[in-house]
Specification:
This protein has 160 residues and is α+β, with helices and mostly antiparallel strands. The protein is built from six helices and four strands. The chain has a four-stranded antiparallel sheet, with helices on both faces. Strand 1 and strand 2 form a beta hairpin. The protein starts with a helix and ends with a helix.
Length: 160
């Protein structure tokens, strides 16, 4: 099988970028040690949306805009959900609201401890038996385009 010139060139460019843009842990981009959030190479820290199934399979969606390595996000979320297990089992609307607040604050504190003020936005959607609780922080609260993108992804995810 013959490898074409375009493939070889794109492969070499990508390999060089991987080498040039490596920061630390799994992060990539342009060195951003002098600022809270990545100003120039934002395309290396795009928004993510992650779905979790909590107690009895009810869905929990988390959107995050953060300039830090998110490889440990599942561990953070699972720790909070385990800590809030009694609140989830309480069958209480206010407790569901409290869970989203605890989750949001924990994510902020955890990642901002790694790099000061690197968490730009958090969106949380918790659905439990005909009750939806949404919690926004930062860019999701302040910028309509972030909420529109969040809503579009939430609408798309169940259909994938």
């Amino acid at each position: 099988m013959e490898i074409n010139k375009e493939y070889t060139e794109s492969f070499n460019i990508a390999k060089q970028l991987i080498s040039d843009r490596m920061l630390y842990e799994n992060r990539m981009g342009i060195n951003d040690d002098k600022v809270n959030t990545n100003l120039i190479s934002k395309h290396y820290s795009p928004m993510i949306v992650r779905k979790y199934n909590i107690v009895k399979g009810w869905p929990l969606y988390i959107g995050l805009i953060c300039d830090e390595d998110l490889s440990d996000l599942d561990h953070i979320v699972n720790g909070v959900i385990d800590a809030c297990f009694d609140m989830i089992e309480s069958n209480n609307i206010q407790q569901m609201r409290n869970i989203t607040g605890i989750l949001s604050e924990t994510i902020q504190k955890y990642y901002n401890k790694k790099k000061n003020n690197c968490v730009e936005g958090i969106a949380i959607l918790l659905y439990v038996d005909k009750c939806v609780v949404e919690n926004f922080y930062g860019d999701y609260m302040n910028h309509g385009p972030c909420r529109i993108e969040w809503a579009g992804i939430i609408n798309m995810l169940p259909h994938i």
